[in-house]
Amino acid sequence: MTSILVICTGNICRSPISEGVLRDALQRRFGAAAPDVSSAGTSGLEGSGAMPESVQAASELGIDIGGHVARRLTQVLAAEADLLLCMARDHRDSFAPPLDARAFTLKELVRALETLPPPPAGAGPETLTERIAAADRARRSGAMATSYDDDIADPLGQPLEAYRAIAWEIETWSDRLVSSLFGTLADDDVAEVP
Predict the structure, then answer these.
(1) Is 163 helix (H, G, I), strand (E, B) or coil?
(2) What domain range is 37 assigned to?
(3) Alpha carbons 92 and 46: distance in angstroms, whole number
(4) pTM of the model
(5) Smaller CB count within 10 Å for the chain: N or C?
(6) In whole numbers, what is the pLDDT of the chain averaged over residues?
(7) Is 153 exposed, middle or buried (0-12, 13-18, 19+ CB in 10 A)?
(8) Measuring CA to CA, how many Å separate 111 from each of 84, 106, 146, 163, 194?
(9) Is 192 within a domain?
């Protein structure tokens, strides 16, 4: 089974929201065959729950992250993932070869994928590693325009409105990511989730 590891700093704000949003989108599309989505933090606050504001902002999108438990990023976790989906460039830049070929910021990956031909009709979870490799080649070839807006801002210490804005941004970019990885679907092509 393919897997995606979402990474931020403390694993209590951005990455829990992103984990929940992405898991929901993939499960709606693929049902039980969806790639596994989890999260960790480069300075993960082991055992902590998601920030109450993150839980609230995710809930307003219909995503329940109330049971989230933070964990620290380890080499083992990183090595096991097919995609290291980072919330900011500093998270992405912490990886050395060969893991760096699988490490992207959310926005960077979407931009890279959108420079490629669309995936074949009916693309499934098994195409994830192929699409990630193609995105890495596009990134290294210089086919992508340089962007200085690759980070999802850390809302820690901000009011609920900042968490809502981050949750909306994550949801918007995650929708683009799923479409760029696996193609667009008609409403009747969405998997039934038991």
Answers:
(1) helix
(2) 3-183
(3) 20
(4) 0.92
(5) C
(6) 92
(7) middle
(8) 16, 9, 10, 23, 33
(9) no
Specify the pLDDT at position 122. Answer: 83
The strand pair at 83-86 and 3-8 is best described as parallel
Examine the pLDDT at 72 and tell me if it is beyond 80: yes
Conformation bin of residue 26: beta by default, left when phi > 0, alpha when psi is -120 to 50 = alpha
In this prediction, residues 33-38 reach a mean pLDDT of: 97
Domain of 127, CATH number, reads 3.40.50.2300
Q: Which residues contact residue 159 at a Cβ distance below 8 angstroms, ignoring those fewer than 6 apart? A: 53
- The CA distance from 114 to 91, in Å, is 22
Q: How many domains does the chain have?
A: 1
Residue 25 falls inside a structural domain = yes
142 within domain boundaries? yes
Average pLDDT over residues 27-56: 95
Question: Within 13 Å, how many C-alpha atoms sit on residue 90's CB side?
Answer: 8
Cα torsion at 142, 38, 76, 149 (round to 10°)? 30
Distance CA(157)–CA(58), nearest Å, equals: 17
For residue 131, being part of any structural domain is answered with yes
Asked whether the predicted pLDDT for residue 191 surpasses 70, the reply is no
Best CA proximity match to 20, nearest among 171, 163, 147 = 171
The single residue listed with the structure tokens 């995606």 is 4
